[in-house]
Batch of 4 targets.
Target 1
Amino acid sequence: MLELLQRKHFGQILKFEADFGFHPTYDETSRVFDKSVGGGSLLDIGIYPIFAALSALGQPNSIEANAEFYDSGPDSKCDIIFHYNAATAYLKSTFLEKTNTEATFYYEAGIIKINSRFHEPSSVTLIDNKGHSEDIDFNYKTIGYSFEIEHFNQLIRSDKKESQLMTFKKSQQLINTLDQVRMRIGLEY
């Protein structure tokens, strides 16, 4: 996906949309709803759309965000907008509904969609402005963490303390961005 983006396969990116939502049964003792352990949609599942935007588009120029909250304190839903020079990213996390959990890049001459569930992808769809569609199927089934586990094990075997794919700098950028969103929605831990 990043190679297609860098090659400008469909020209300049104009818009990016990513969502992650499911509707769990509310239980204040569940880690998902327990604010004392970082519960809420932003930190539990909002990290995935944010990570995708940062990976593809980099650090935004500005951030807008709003959220809804459970009475117990954590956010139940978070809508985020990242503004870039030539593009806008619309990101969503929610425990109030099941979403498609897709990541879609809108370009001058087409669309590239990482199909559901985008954080554990098995296929990508390319659609040009003439309506021609091409599916790229990785023919790989995963629950989303297989690649991380394999990579982490390789780092251990190589006696490396930092990943070249997810550097300390990228990790810090991700948590700083989550903190910026958290401040905008008024979520404190």
Target 2
Amino acid sequence: MAVYKQQESKFWWYKFTWNGESIRRSTKQTNKRVAEQMEAAHKTSLAKGEVGIVQKAPVPTFERFSERFMEAIFVRCAEKPRTVAFYREKLNRLLEYPKLARATLDAIDEALIEEYVKERRKQVAPATVNRQLATLRRALRLAHEWKVIDRVPRIRLLPGERTREFVLTREVEAKYLEAVPEPLADIAILMLDTGLRDGEALALKWTDVHMQPAGGAKFGYLQVQKGKSAKARRTLSLTARAVSILTARLKTSASEFVFCGKLGKPILVTSLDHQHAKVRESLKLPADFVVHSLRHTMLTRLGLLGVDAFTIMKIAGHSSITVSQRYVHPSPESVERAFEKLEESRQGVARIGVGIELGIGEKVSDQKIALSC
């Protein structure tokens, strides 16, 4: 039915039947042609829905989408305030670039990302740019999961990122532990002897610590309930030195947390960083020596002692074996020893084979069989 006007109405109306249902609407228009176009558009919309065609919502700008992204980060990382703060800070840096902030998500392509990288690289180091790119990549991947965009552009990180590889020598360790105040002194020993992350150490509760060995074990142990990744949940043995400092701390503790502040709540990581920086400067140690270096030192020592990458991965709570492999540096001697074991194994199998053959083919004295095996 064509559009029509009701009595005493200046607006055009339309009415039609769709799948047995009567549809009647006012166009709120005085122009008949526009009203007819609105009727046609309504019919087209119904037809699209009937054949499974859904009109896509407008793609938001990166600035608008960033609000939804941060809401998701806050929910997913509610128990990791440092992670939330990290994403918020990196997202703010991304939004400082107008072209990126105002672009719709589907317009963010490799070319625009490269423009951003070139501009940022003039101001900050590769590592800083890479953290911002990682944030952008996560945001776009979430947008793809939520079907806001059809594809995620390829985001390549910058090479030449400088990593902190500082490792304490035994001599420097002794000087550091003597100079550092509590509670960092005890936390440092625990990190050096168990490979805990600083955040994991600060989250420890006394219910996670078991001084006495269980079953047939030789050492007491502690349990990491949660951490940076899914693999962070793990059980770690306690050295005699670790048991000593924990036992002493337990005697004076009135909190459920092993390391707590004045109000009985966990100490902030930033507090450790401040304590550590003062001692590092007083001892004139390199700026690369950060609190995390204590964990890095422990894992490096395991690698030098010949511990395999899979065991290091288990102890460290790494999410990937690739991360653990960098601590393993086989010496020429250990490589040669591996071939010695292979050769010994081959020769052993060969000798056993000869013994079996002699035993079946003829009567051989016990002495000959013993020699052949």
Target 3
Amino acid sequence: MAFGSVPSASTGETKRPPLSPYHVFFFAIFHVLALMAPWFFSWSALGVAIFLHWLTGSIGICMSYHRMLSHRSFHVPKWLEYVLVTIGALAVEGGPIFWVAGHRVHHAFTEDNEKDPYSANRGFWWSHMLWMVCPQKQTFNKEVYERYAPELARDPYYRWLDRNFGLLQVPLGLALLAIGGWSWVIYGIFLRTVLLWHCTWFINSATHMFGYRTFDSDDNSRNLWWAAILAYGEGWHNNHHTFPNVARAGYQWWELDTTWWVIRTLQVLGLAKRVVMPPEQARAKIRKFAS
């Protein structure tokens, strides 16, 4: 299938749902305001954007939403789990129940055009962002997606966060405005969010199309170095899809995984328990691959 193509009913494949005006408007507003960044530049604002990109991206999404909640590759005390997941909600990528459920469905039905919410078989742009602006009912139906994250759906705080994650931008925005003015708001909210969106969306799109394969997984997941840099280690996607419950994504010495460094630090401090490491069959394959 060609880069960026989307199957249609005329080819006998999956038909793309119609655009959602609400979703298009939401993403467009963030992108337009992010494009205003050059007119509000300051070095301090850039620093805030970089820090919040790391905090909400690596700590919030990659470590907390993904490795901790979706795959339970490590456990932390409940109070710390709530703090980390709240940081994830600040990324504006959806509430924890929605995000975790969608990701679990992706692993259960990887690249299935009907069941995988962001199947790369439907083209680069579908898996990158069209799945959100052309929403399928089953992906955004609360009663449906909660079935894939039942333990989170039973938690009152996660239910509240799933409904109100967007409201967290208000106190954050007010704090940024009070400290650094509008430049901090533009960089710390809008530019940071848009850049983080695309960095993490590349994991859904690019890493199912480009890169190398260390393991013969049952899908087209690949290890892609530049996606790993942009998404704090998540780009070693072939490793992850082969052993999804493992806390570490980068296996080779050159496979940079900065999110793993934080998990390892928490483990050394005694805060991260039951950290899942690569099994022996993975280590043997890695030794063979590197030799």
Target 4
Amino acid sequence: MKDLIGNRRRLDLGRKARLLGLTVKENGLFYTGLLGLYYAGSAVSNLAFERMQTLRKSRGLPGVNSRSLNAEIWNSWNWEAGGDEWTPSAEWKTSLVENVLKPRVPEASDIIEIGPGAGRWTEHLIPRASRYQGIDISSTCVELCAKKFAHAAQASFRTNDGNNLPGVEDASVGIIWSFDVFVHINLADIASYLDEFQRVLKPGGRAIIHHGTNAGHTGGWRSDATTSELNALIESKGLQVAEQFKEWTDPATGDKHPVGLYDDAVTVIAKPA
């Protein structure tokens, strides 16, 4: 909706008046009245959304990204689509696995996945793991994945509080992976997770996380985090930004793929060796 509203600015007032006249002529007053209500309603909706994001940031409100709301949402979610409701295309997903995941997750890694959901990325991580631990705020997801990947002896699943890594030993993990998760985690909880990254990663270990970049202003119910705030937090925890990108190019096809639909990014966080 937000981008459609933005596109209206591409027509000047005179052109809009001409279009209005043509619409009345071809469709009648009743249809045109309904169209006017739609446009007015969408403009009000957009204004309310922008005000919500600004208010949340200025007053430190959690919005819909608190840990309690995240737990409630993902415990109640219908996971029949397996998380692929967030996949723009099969080509995008295949390219992400081949060009984002595999080059950054070495084989035989000790891996933690934060927020496996229904196992959308888990199925690609477990074959690359000497040990895999899936940690999710949703008990529904933990139960689902435990059944789905019961055949994988190196895999285990458990719940957490939405900002910690319980049961993970200090300096024991080489790779942390999280996609479609940190986009919904607020800065205060990201800070707690970064403390955990510092604790559980081996020297030289890395965390690959997908996150929002602009405090939710492009939609998608993103968290209150901006890229600059995230980067400052990473540095404050004694960690380093090794990579950061909003798109990648598939060398096999030459196609460019966005990380997400809402100006998202992937950041690779390194613990110094």
